[in-house]
């Protein structure tokens, strides 16, 4: 049994995907940057966690073609809201098309532009503690900045999830000094020792860290 075979098994028996999720994933997998898309098991976990804590207000940093946003929007109650941030008009056009097709477009607000500028504006618009759940999946060098914003945005006992915390396993390779690897290595150590939160790092896909704000 190879790694690929067991990953296919986990998708088939560990996830429930709608027809639109499948279509969006298929369209995304044909793109040169396909490896950026959140995996179905990771999406399934995000949706499960959202429902577990009754998340109504969700923030995502890093939309791409909208697979994780679609998955999270499908886990929202009818009066829920997902705000998702990305700089790319081209990729998010694919996202919007599929959100419409899935009937969740009214629940999703896309903010186009640099994520840090959008976060700064959101602080003014939404205020601190405005979100139940945050998913961070954008440029790795800025993860720590996104983390600090998220701690202001998240309500006590709300969850923050980070994708790609292994960065292709490079975080555990002492010879790797790329800017993304160094940023993630520092952040992983910071979160482990951060008294503001409870945390759990899962070896799911490229590594996912779950953080719960303590108070
Ligand atoms: C890994 S992908 C997100 C994948 C997405 N969550 C999914 O499941 O398909 C990262 C995204 O972050 C966006 N991004 C990277 N740096 C950014 C920045 N500084 N501001 C806004 N968006 C950024 C990219 O345009 C890209 O779409």
From TrEMBL:
GO annotation terms (biological process): methylation
Keywords (A to Z) from UniProt: Methyltransferase, S-adenosyl-L-methionine, Transferase
SUPFAM superfamilies, per database record: S-adenosyl-L-methionine-dependent methyltransferases
Top-level EC class: transferase
GO molecular function: caffeoyl-CoA O-methyltransferase activity
InterPro entries: Cation-dep_OMT (IPR050362), SAM-dependent_MTases_sf (IPR029063), SAM_O-MeTrfase (IPR002935)
Protein name as it appears in the record: Caffeoyl-CoA O-methyltransferase
């Amino acid at each position: 049994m190879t790694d690929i075979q067991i990953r296919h098994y986990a998708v088939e028996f560990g996830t429930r995907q709608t027809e639109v999720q499948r279509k969006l994933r298929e369209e995304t997998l044909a793109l040169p940057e396909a490896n950026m898309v959140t995996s179905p098991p990771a999406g399934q976990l995000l949706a499960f966690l959202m429902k577990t804590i009754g998340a109504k207000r969700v923030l995502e940093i890093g939309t791409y073609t909208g697979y994780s946003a679609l998955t999270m929007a499908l886990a929202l109650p009818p009066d829920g809201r997902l705000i998702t941030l990305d700089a790319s008009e081209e990729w998010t056009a694919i996202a919007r098309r599929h959100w419409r097709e899935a009937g969740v477009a009214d629940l999703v607000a896309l903010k186009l532009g640099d994520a840090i500028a959008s976060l700064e504006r959101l602080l003014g618009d939404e205020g601190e503690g405005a979100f139940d759940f945050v998913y961070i999946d954008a440029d790795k060098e800025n993860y720590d900045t996104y983390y600090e914003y998220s701690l202001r945005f998240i309500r006590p006992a709300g969850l923050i999830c980070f994708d790609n915390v292994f960065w292709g396993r490079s975080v555990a390779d002492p010879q790797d000094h790329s800017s993304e690897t160094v940023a993630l290595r520092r952040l992983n150590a910071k979160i482990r020792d951060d008294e503001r939160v409870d945390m759990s790092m899962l070896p799911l896909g490229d590594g996912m860290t779950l953080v719960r704000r303590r108070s």
